[in-house]
Amino acid sequence: MAVELAELVGQLRSALTDAMNAGDDADLRFELGPVELELTVGVNKDVRPGAKVRFWVVELGAEGTMSSQALQRIKLTLDPRKAGQDGRPWIGGDEIEGER
What we know:
The chain is α+β, with helices and mostly antiparallel strands and 100 residues long. The chain has one helix at residues 5-22; strands spanning 3-4, 29-31, 35-45, 53-57, 71-78, 90-92. It is built from 1 helix and 6 strands; from the N terminus they run βαβββββ.
């Protein structure tokens, strides 16, 4: 099952927000620095007029119908900021099972 790049970034935003909220009252908190993602993505564009280019995150080692020419490696560096606040947000809280 393919995941669109925008959906992946949205899920990452949600997970970081949950971690920030969990650490609001924690004694030990961490400043959230740049978040680096290195991904292999498939790129496609519909042939309809006005269609947008779409980026799909590809699982390494997964077999699919995309040819190797359609795959691109990209590296994103995100520098999260909390709306209405200066500086980087803080995260904390208990470790969640499966978290790395």
